[in-house]
Specification:
Length: 153
């Protein structure tokens, strides 16, 4: 969402579907875990990490709204087949320094422990953008090798 800040989704719920990807019957709607999201935000902010609470009021200023992207929908789709009744903390990546991203992970862990939450951390990245020359970022053989090694394991 932002180039210079980690965005934490902060509405009652978050929704999206895959109709733009030819699967209009696939949709996800989940409640946001606002207590945990708030705690992560506060801890990260106090550590000097560039974070923002992504509300629809804020995002409307940028002609967008809070939504799940396909990088989140796909793993959540499979999780929802077996597990329901959970709340989501939706964090959107920004190109911060490795140190700040590491510190954010520490603060996420701290917030989970402080609130005594059961939590699963799912990181999703779309490396497929680099698997074809005509893709948005061109072909990268290292990405293909990485994905092939991952799929073999």
């Amino acid at each position: 969402m932002f180039q210079d800040a980690i965005a934490l989704g902060y509405e009652e719920e978050i929704y999206e579907d895959l109709k733009n990807f030819g699967a209009p019957n696939v949709s996800i709607e989940l409640p946001i875990h606002k207590t945990l999201t708030s705690r992560i935000y506060t801890l990260a902010y106090n550590e000097g990490i560039s974070v923002v609470m992504a509300t629809n009021a804020l995002l409307n200023q940028y002609n967008t709204s809070l939504f799940l992207d396909h990088g989140a929908i796909v793993p959540l789709y499979f999780i929802n087949k077996y597990y329901k009744g959970y709340k989501l903390v939706h964090i959107t990546y920004a190109a911060l320094s490795d140190i700040d991203l590491y510190k954010l992970g520490i603060e996420i862990n701290r917030a989970v422990k402080e609130l005594k939450e059961d939590a699963i951390f799912i990181a999703s990245g779309d490396l497929s953008h680099k698997l074809k020359e005509e893709g948005p970022y061109g072909y990268n053989v290292s990405v293909e090798k990485c994905l092939n090694n991952f799929l073999i394991m």
